[in-house]
């Protein structure tokens, strides 16, 4: 197993983000009474929006992802027609399902899932243009950017909730800002999850998102969906976490490079360093780039947060959204042994990896 020197970047990021200790800052609200959570899903912004067109969703991907999530939540296979939960006039169909229709709906174990989505082409432009992620809320332009960013990301949240609702998934949008979440130097400092706990307990699927929030040190910042995922994983301890992205997984260099190699398995050591398990690479260099407009850290933050989740003993799957590979990850098919025909990246704790050798 060859250590990757360039992966120290992930270790350094981890050191900048100390593990959050349970304290009075975190209102756990009934969390201890919740049944075990099956999966936390991160919908990558690049996968569900058109990244080259501001504030435009990728409708096809969003429909496919929503359908796959419904399949993953189903308690048994069924070909019954799904009665949707979006009764908005904007759909052009005012025919509202009846109570009998919902009795025939396929049974879903929706309370076993939590969804967090990124912003993609929503929010990043507004945040980057105004410098919201750098703080300075006392400045009029930053304050305006804070408002503009939240308008953008909450509008995307509504679109995602509606797409899930059309698949019969009882989804509820939840904004970290509105729930009272805040940060200290971009690390979560206050997070009331009592409403989240109640939502799960009632059989709903919470849909959270990256958001503009108050920061106790610099006034304001951007709380990324990837950081939210890590925080929720620490509190809810799901069986596995799935990151749905616009590429097949993690590569040793930008995937646009014709020589890029898909990293199928990464092991995380106790000290936070990474090791590539599969495949064995001839070079020890892994190159990760971040887009200039991305105020959340892009793939670098994603991998760093995934590594911290893996240290908790929770398997993390990074896979392309809307593919057969993503469906297999969502349903929990990818467990200890990674199928040869599955394309994606598994990040897991090294002790678990050694146990399967």
TrEMBL record:
EC number(s) given by UniProt: 2.7.4.26
Q: Name one GO biological process term.
A: terpenoid biosynthetic process
Domain named Aspartate/glutamate/uridylate kinase: residues: 111-319
The reactions it catalyses are:
isopentenyl phosphate + ATP = isopentenyl diphosphate + ADP
Query: Which InterPro entries does the UniProt entry name for this protein?
Result: AceGlu_kinase-like_sf, Asp/Glu/Uridylate_kinase, Fosfomycin_R_FomA-type
The annotated region (Disordered) lies at: 1-31
User: Is rRNA-binding tagged as a keyword?
Assistant: no
Q: Where does substrate bind?
A: 119, 124, 225
Which keywords does this Swiss-Prot/TrEMBL entry list? Answer: ATP-binding, Isoprene biosynthesis, Kinase, Nucleotide-binding, Transferase
Short name of one Pfam family = AA_kinase
Site annotation (Transition state stabilizer) points to: 51
The source's domain of life comes to Eukaryota
- Record-level Gene Ontology MF annotations: ATP binding; isopentenyl phosphate kinase activity; kinase activity
The record's similarity note reads: Belongs to the isopentenyl phosphate kinase family.
Identify this protein by name: Isopentenyl phosphate kinase
Which source organism? Cinnamomum micranthum f. kanehirae
